[in-house]
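Reminder to self: tokens first, then the designed residues, so the page reads top to bottom the way the pipeline ran.
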């Protein structure tokens, strides 16, 4: 399994044994503000994870004490010329696209501030676990821009068009309890235990077939929002991908033998690589 540091801001590590990878946002002095370097490092890390079929589930966490991620690094961007802004945009898009494209289930462990691009990182995940003290928001319109990490498209899919419009137009910050009620996050952890809670969920997911998990995620993502007939065709393709795999054989055998399955997965050797 891929492990190591990507640039100055991102770490990928294994939190114990098994098929779980932890992608760590590691720019604590800036509360993980998304700088050019941060974006490039995140894109590199997600590309490496996407190519590592030994990873069953990924959990995104933060080393910053007060934040998951506060969004764009406005201190860095203050000095940007128009040329700089144009050059930075593809880097930013690649970072968010990298998270969104991860083929395995991805869980965000959110504590403190998750604002702007920080919340968009969480939106790009499949499940969001939040600390009761977390604060959520897309405040971009207050600084003269719009959400550019997928927020205008992902938030309506999560909470509906009208609610998303209100949150984006107002730019207001939403405390965790209300965020749960609105559907901005999926579950609240006990106070101070968001990483542990997210990893526990990841262990539950990772106990299942890695081939099935990826096929299910693909069907969920590609089928959502389209017409039912197309969605069912996508689901059918996913079924075939799993039904003729070694995981299907093992799952049926384990069920009939009343034991825990030992998933063959993709039969790829795990590797440990340092990236600097």
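Designed residues (276 positions):
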């Amino acid at each position: 399994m891929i492990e190591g540091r990507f640039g100055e801001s991102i770490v990928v590590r294994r939190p114990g044994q098994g098929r779980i990878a932890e992608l760590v946002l590691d720019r604590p002095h800036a509360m993980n503000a998304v700088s050019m370097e941060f974006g490039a490092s995140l894109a590199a890390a997600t590309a490496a994870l996407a190519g590592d079929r030994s990873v069953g589930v990924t959990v995104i966490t933060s080393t910053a004490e007060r934040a998951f991620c506060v969004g764009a690094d406005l201190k860095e961007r203050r000095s940007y010329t128009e040329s700089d802004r144009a050059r930075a945009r593809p880097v930013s898009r690649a970072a968010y696209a990298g998270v969104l494209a991860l083929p395995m289930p991805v869980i965000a462990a959110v504590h403190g501030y998750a604002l702007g691009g920080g919340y968009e990182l969480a939106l790009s995940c499949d499940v969001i676990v939040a600390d009761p003290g977390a604060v959520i928001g897309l405040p971009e319109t207050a600084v003269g821009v719009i959400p550019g990490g997928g927020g205008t498209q992902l938030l309506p899919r999560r909470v509906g068009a009208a609610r998303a419009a209100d949150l984006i137009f107002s730019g207001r910050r939403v405390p965790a309890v209300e965020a749960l009620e609105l559907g901005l996050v999926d579950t609240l952890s006990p106070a101070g235990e968001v990483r542990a809670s997210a990893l526990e969920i990841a262990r539950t997911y990772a106990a299942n077939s890695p081939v099935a998990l990826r096929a299910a995620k693909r069907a969920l993502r590609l089928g959502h929002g389209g017409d039912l007939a197309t969605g069912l065709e996508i689901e059918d393709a996913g079924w075939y991908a799993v039904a003729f795999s070694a995981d299907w054989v093992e799952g049926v055998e384990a069920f009939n033998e009343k034991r825990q399955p030992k998933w063959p997965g993709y039969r790829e050797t795990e590797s440990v690589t340092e990236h600097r």
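The radius of gyration is 19 Å.
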